[in-house]
Amino acid sequence: MNLQMLEYFLTAAKEKSITKAADILFVSQPALSKQVSKLEETLGFPLFIRTSKGISLTHKGQKLYDDVEPTLRKLQSELYSHMHDREIRMGSDPFLASYFFPDYIEQANPFNIKLTYVKDDSLELLPLLESGGIDAAVIQDVARHKGLQSTFLFHDTFFAAVSSNHDLAQQHMVSISDCLLYTQLLPPASTPLYKRIHLLAEEQGYTVPPVIELPYHALIGFAAQGYGVTYLPSIMVKKIQYKGVEFLPIENNPIQREMHLYALDSSTLKILKTGFDT
What we know:
By secondary structure, this protein is an alpha/beta fold. It has twelve helices and eleven strands.
């Protein structure tokens, strides 16, 4: 028996649903059910009555809940009180490092978050997490990874960015076909954005136009100088006004991404998620 088993039991009992408890705890439903079953085997009696409508506590399950819940919550509170000086080594991509984390880092108590690694492709952060090189990261478009805890963080769409003097600048909205008529200003070929634009070109039956590969931080500057079209996420577009650049919505939002928060353990993940949701 361990504290995680008890935490799973208490959350399932409170929510009266394995599915809801699994969502709250950032674990899969089968993993939670397995831990509850192990606890029942250890104790020697059933904790829940399971029906098609959900779960409810047995008489012995209710007594265990009443005895354990106050004690475990007090223990968690004591543990959290000792975590204020803990440093969390965080991994990020360049856009999040500049336009997401500055708003939320101070709210993600009780941790002292340090942006330790910034990678053009957030998938490169997964090996660092697995090896213990970082404690947490935000990963694009990968909801689960074996051995790590994760939860959905937010959805992001991309805008086209062009010079105010560009042919497209006077339009209220552009299509991806419109954008592909011009030189593409893109991050390195290994990045998700570069790959997505090439895939869209293939789907549209276009030959990929000339591409200028640039570091993320240089994209908007080159767009302002009229070198071509680039694509920037809404988390950036909503935060800045850049002289000489027009941000244009793209029809049907063909460039999107889902960001997922990862951590080595569920308690760290839960506290970070609470901070980022504030």
